[in-house]
């Protein structure tokens, strides 16, 4: 029996290296599952029958028509495609010290989610929690208690398919949802089709580059730990902001590395979706939140977040919490908000389109459609991307991945940090030139 939806999904997305691992296809169809949700999860057909058409239509690796989704959500196109539609922009943090201290930055997402649940604006929240059976991994849950929401407060820097939980979402009258840009895009596509209208608040994280689980396995091997089952607990942003990767083992040992040192694994284990996804600031949410990377906040430590209130209900919610004395918010200009992430905005808003164009030209398989594109990218910027391409291509080889495991992590982290800063400084004039004035055009889909 032919299964056209699965055949199209496999050909256009999975075999083409465009899967974002969002989990929607599995959550929407009983015929699909993830064989191993920890090791770079890829959906497989595991049951007889026809795959739901929604599994194909909801896939963000195949298409996210940002112009149409912006009109659907906000009734207009963004004035600035670098950041998307918004009502107001803030720097903020939770005034609950426990929440702020245990979160990745300012604790805004955790506190907003908890507030929605406690005020009964929703009766569940789709989030990620640590997997008690597999402490080295996380799993999606529909949180209904304070404890479950608090357990979701840490960032997770390896792939975890959140939208597999959609199979349980219709049991709830009203839901909040916390996800990454590709996961959020899939939810919005489904809502555009009239599905999952019970997801009433969508909150998202700014998302740059993340890795698949091989990064953790490599880090453990570099410390002489050959089995992830020996992990008792992982925290990716433990301690004082910006935090440390902290892994507690079952034998009592604790492995800890500063965030910027642990980032040395990025060129070796970066996911394809990180390279191809053009949305950094999570543009299709009600509220999106990222780290406030600015010298004045970095010096203060503690954790500060840049917060985009994108919809009126998102803004009203934030203002309600501020009035109640639960969170601190200081409005900032668009220019200030954008200045905190210039490097990653360029990586996504120009770099991802360059990388996709090269893929379309040379790989000749599936093609991702975003409905818009940057105009007038210079040859110098293309050259910078060519260097990035060589770094990622070399880094993801088996030989390079194994080689770095024999270099002391302290040394590797320091060297990587120096190289990272040097490369950013060298490429900054080209990458930042014209960024804030970058023009984009809406395009039609080729049939």
End-to-end separation in angstroms reads 27 Å
Radius of gyration equals: 21 Å
Strands of the widest sheet, in order across it, are 5-4-6-7-11-12-3-13
> How confident overall, as mean pLDDT?
89
Oligomer: single chain
Number of helices: 20
Shape: globular
Label the structural class.
alpha+beta
Characterize the biggest β-sheet: 8 strands, mixed
Number of domains: 2
- Helix content percent band: 40-55%
Portion in beta strands: 15-25%
The stretches of 5 or more residues where confidence is low (pLDDT under 50) are: none
Number of strands: 15
Which terms summarize this structure?
2 domains; three-stranded antiparallel sheet; alpha+beta; 447 residues; 17% strand; globular; eight-stranded mixed sheet; 20 helices
Describe the structure.
41% of the residues lie in helices and 17% in strands. It is built from 20 helices and 15 strands. It has helices spanning 4-14, 24-28, 53-57, 66-74, 97-102, 108-118, 146-151, 166-169, 181-192, 214-222, 259-262, 266-269, 272-276, 295-300, 312-323, 334-339, 342-362, 379-395, 398-404, 409-432; strands at residues 32-34, 43-45, 88-94, 124-130, 138-143, 175-179, 199-205, 231-238, 244-249, 254-258, 287-291, 305-309, 327-331, 372-374, 440-442. It has an 8-stranded mixed β-sheet. Strands 8-9-10 form a 3-stranded antiparallel β-sheet. A two-stranded antiparallel ribbon has the order 1-2. Helix 17 (342-362) packs across helix 20 (409-432). The mean pLDDT is 89.
């Amino acid at each position: 029996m032919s299964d056209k939806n699965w055949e199209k999904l496999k050909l256009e997305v999975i075999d083409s290296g465009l899967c974002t691992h969002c989990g929607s296809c599995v959550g929407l169809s009983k015929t699909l599952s993830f064989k191993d949700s920890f090791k770079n999860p890829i959906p497989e057909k595991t049951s007889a029958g026809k795959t739901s058409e929604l599994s194909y239509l909801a896939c963000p690796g195949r298409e996210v028509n940002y112009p149409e989704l912006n009109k659907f959500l906000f009734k207009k196109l963004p004035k600035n495609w670098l950041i998307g539609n918004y009502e107001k922009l803030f720097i903020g943090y939770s005034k609950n010290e426990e929440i702020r201290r245990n979160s990745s930055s300012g604790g805004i997402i955790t506190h907003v989610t908890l507030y929605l649940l406690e005020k009964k604006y929703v009766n569940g929240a789709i989030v990620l929690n640590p997997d008690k059976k597999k402490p080295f991994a996380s799993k999606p849950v529909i949180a209904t208690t304070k404890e479950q929401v608090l357990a979701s407060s840490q960032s997770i820097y390896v792939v975890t398919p959140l939208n597999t939980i959609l199979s349980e979402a219709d049991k709830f009258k009203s839901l909040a949802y916390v996800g990454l840009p590709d996961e959020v895009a899939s939810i919005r596509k489904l809502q555009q089709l009239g599905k999952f209208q019970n997801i009433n608040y969508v909150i998202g994280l700014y998302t740059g580059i993340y890795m698949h689980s091989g990064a953790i396995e490599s880090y453990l091997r570099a410390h002489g730990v050959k089995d992830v089952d020996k992990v008792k607990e992982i925290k990716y942003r433990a301690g004082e902001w910006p935090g440390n990767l902290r892994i507690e083992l079952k034998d009592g040992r604790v492995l800890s590395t500063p965030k910027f040192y642990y980032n040395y694994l990025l060129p070796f284990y970066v996911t394809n979706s990180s390279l191809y996804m053009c949305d950094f600031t999570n543009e299709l949410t009600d509220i999106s939140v990222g780290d406030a990377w600015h010298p004045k906040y970095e010096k203060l430590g503690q954790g500060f977040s840049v917060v985009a209130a994108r919809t009126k209900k998102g803004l009203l919610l934030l203002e309600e919490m501020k009035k109640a004395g639960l969170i601190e918010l200081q409005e900032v200009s668009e220019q200030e908000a954008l200045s905190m992430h210039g490097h990653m905005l360029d990586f996504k808003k120009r770099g991802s389109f360059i990388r996709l164009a090269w893929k379309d030209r040379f790989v000749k398989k599936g093609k991702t459609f975003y409905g818009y594109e940057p105009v007038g990218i210079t040859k110098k910027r293309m050259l910078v991307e060519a260097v990035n391409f060589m770094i990622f291509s070399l880094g993801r080889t088996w030989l390079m991945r194994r080689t770095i495991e024999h270099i002391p992590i302290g040394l590797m982290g320091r060297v990587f940090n120096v190289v990272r800063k040097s490369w950013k400084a060298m490429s900054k004039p080209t990458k930042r030139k014209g960024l804030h004035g970058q023009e984009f055009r809406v395009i039609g889909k080729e049939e």
